[in-house]
Design a protein that fits this description.
Number of helices: 6
Shape: globular
Structural class: alpha/beta
Low-confidence stretches: none
Number of domains: 1
Distance between the termini: 25 Å
Largest sheet: 5 strands, parallel
CATH architecture: 3-Layer(aba) Sandwich
Strand content: 5-15%
Mean pLDDT: 96
Order of helices and strands: EHHEHHEHHEE
Radius of gyration: 15 Å
Strand order of the largest sheet: 3-2-1-4-5
Length: about 140
């Protein structure tokens, strides 16, 4: 199958919640062969995990990341083409007074240059970037 979706941090974290969103879980299963994430999202997930003190929760997250995600989810790089698109978008947005988080711009850039739809709960984080397709799987 062809990759269609780039999953944001909040989507990949959802299966670990005590009561995961059913719509997200259904779509993760349905599109499991069509999803990827970015190295930037992978960094956010690792950083969140490594900030936790050693505990059962941290071990559960580490197992999920290394034994589930890392083995089944393509992790796409923030490369030269993404950096060029990101720089142009940052400059454009800055000219209209919008200063967006750097990591969100990197994630958007990977999705844009790979031709993928960003899947996120936080649609507004990406709304100002031009030419992106965004879906919220948290809505019914």
């Amino acid at each position: 199958m062809t990759r269609r979706y780039l999953l944001d941090t909040n989507v990949l974290s959802e299966p670990l919640r005590p009561c995961p969103n059913e719509g997200v879980m259904r779509r993760l299963e349905r599109y499991r062969d069509e999803v990827a994430t970015s190295a930037v999202v992978w960094n956010e997930l690792l950083y969140g995990c490594y900030r936790l003190l050693p505990s059962a929760r941290r071990r559960k997250i580490e197992r999920y990341m290394h034994q589930v995600l890392a083995l089944s989810l393509p992790i796409l790089p923030y490369d030269e083409q993404a950096a060029e698109w990101h720089a142009a978008e940052r400059a454009r947005l800055e000219q209209v007074g919008r200063m967006l988080p750097f990591a969100d711009g990197q994630i958007a850039a990977v999705a844009k240059v790979q031709g993928l739809i960003i899947v996120t709960r936080n649609v507004s984080d990406y709304a100002d970037f031009q030419g992106l397709h965004i879906e919220n799987w948290f809505n019914p």
